């Protein structure tokens, strides 16, 4: 089965497989935070029976709803929307945490997970020069090669640049808020965090 996202390419879509690969086999309910036009939410729906996407950007949510699928798209702020705590088996977020206070966002995602549920984040962070220069140079070269073969889709959702937190700050936050989380720095100017909430 070919993922919908494979017809478009950018740095975020490139890491969708990492998110999808973290979905527990038993997941029944998933939440995609910062769902945008719903690309990842639709991929999640292929493997999870109930999917909710939430985003603050009305044009993006309107576009997502035009697909006419059975995903519940919510226009709102996931920090304040009255989701029931511990009600999701899987929570995902791609390129969203840098739009808000990262610690607040991670804490909110954690509280929405059921025991045994999984959180999967792909995010942007700010480089520290000269420390991150080798990563940035390698990422720019690889990104250019990908674009040459795949093109580049520019999403219409709002952007924030530069990200407020650095890669090292995000690694520290993940370790403090999500003990045991797997943090990984990726070549295409992204990081990922995968965390399973301990069963009670």
UniProtKB/TrEMBL annotation:
Entry's Gene Ontology molecular function annotations: S-adenosylmethionine-dependent methyltransferase activity
The record's Pfam families line, in alphabetical order, gives:
Methyltransf_11 (PF08241)
GO biological process assignments? methylation
Residue limits of the Methyltransferase type domain? 31-120
**Which domain of life does the protein's organism represent?**
Bacteria
Organism field: Glycomyces albidus
For this UniProt record, give its keywords in alphabetical order, as a comma-separated list: Methyltransferase, S-adenosyl-L-methionine, Transferase
The record ties this protein, via CDD domains, to: AdoMet_MTases (cd02440)
**Name by which UniProt lists this protein:** Methyltransferase domain-containing protein
Q: Which InterPro entries match?
A: Methyltransf_11, SAM-dependent_MTases_sf
């Amino acid at each position: 089965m070919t993922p919908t996202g494979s017809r478009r390419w950018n740095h975020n879509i490139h890491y969708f497989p990492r998110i999808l690969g973290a979905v527990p086999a038993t997941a029944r309910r998933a939440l995609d935070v910062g769902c945008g036009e719903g690309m990842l939410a639709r991929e999640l729906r292929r493997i999870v029976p109930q999917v909710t996407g939430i985003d603050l950007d009305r044009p993006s949510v309107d576009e997502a709803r035009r697909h006419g699928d059975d995903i519940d798209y919510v226009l709102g702020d996931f920090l304040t929307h009255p989701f029931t705590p511990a009600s999701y088996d899987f929570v995902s977020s791609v390129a969203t945490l840098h739009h808000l206070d990262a610690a607040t966002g991670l804490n909110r995602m954690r509280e929405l997970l059921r025991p045994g549920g999984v959180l999967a984040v792909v995010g942007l962070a700010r480089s520290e020069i000269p420390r991150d220069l080798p990563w940035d140079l390698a990422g720019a070269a690889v990104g250019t090669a990908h674009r040459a073969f795949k093109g580049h889709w520019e999403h219409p959702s709002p952007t924030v640049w530069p990200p407020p937190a650095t890669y090292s700050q995000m690694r520290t936050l993940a370790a403090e808020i999500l003990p045991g989380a797997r943090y990984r720095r990726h070549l295409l100017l992204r990081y990922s965090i995968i965390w399973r909430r301990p069963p009670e």
